[in-house]
Amino acid sequence: DGGxxxxxxxxxxxxxxxxxLSCEQNLNHDAMYWYRQDPGQGLRLIYYSQIxxxxxxxxxxxxxxxxxxxxxxxxxxxxxxxxxPTAFYLCASSQGDNEQFFGPGTRLTVL
Amino acid sequence: GQNIDQPTEMTATEGAIxxxxxxxxxxxxxxxxxxxxxxxxxxxxxxYNVLDGLEEKGRFSSFLSRSKGYSYLLLKELQMKDSASYxxxxxxxxxxxxxxxxxxxxxxxxxx
Lengths: 111, 112
Hints:
The complex is a heterodimer. Chain A is an all-beta fold.
């Protein structure tokens, strides 16, 4: 079955710690995206990557970092510089500018 | 910049029809998506409009008017499982790539 996986589903971290969220897809899509969703807010774009070894900042990239060393993988690191990291994080992929397919999400809580 | 407006919440009765509106102001418009998102889950694709008019897909239809910056999602024969948030997302071209900008979503509650 083709799809996008994110792990873990729930993640708890202490304030000041960096944490890396995983995102893997086997859809052979070139483009991958990271969004953040807060209650009452729309999805906001953090970073996106259109091809391997290349990525661009989205609207709210501060305090986050990514890498795209493999086509299948696009991990997101939430650094201690992110002021309010508690949120629902969604990874997506697409082939070109077609519809984006989303992973199940990771709910990050910083204590 | 991009600006997308949707009603925050709507309530409708099982078996009825509901229309969820979305208005947008954007540069480089290149299409509009509707997604469904159940609480705590990933958004799933419902429809895509790039030309003016109505696209029908089973119980769901989506309409676009580019000149008015307006779209709606029409849900017929509502079922309890249709209770979810519905996200309007505008695709636009800028800075050498396509991007999606999402509205805040409309939370639909279907009541018996």
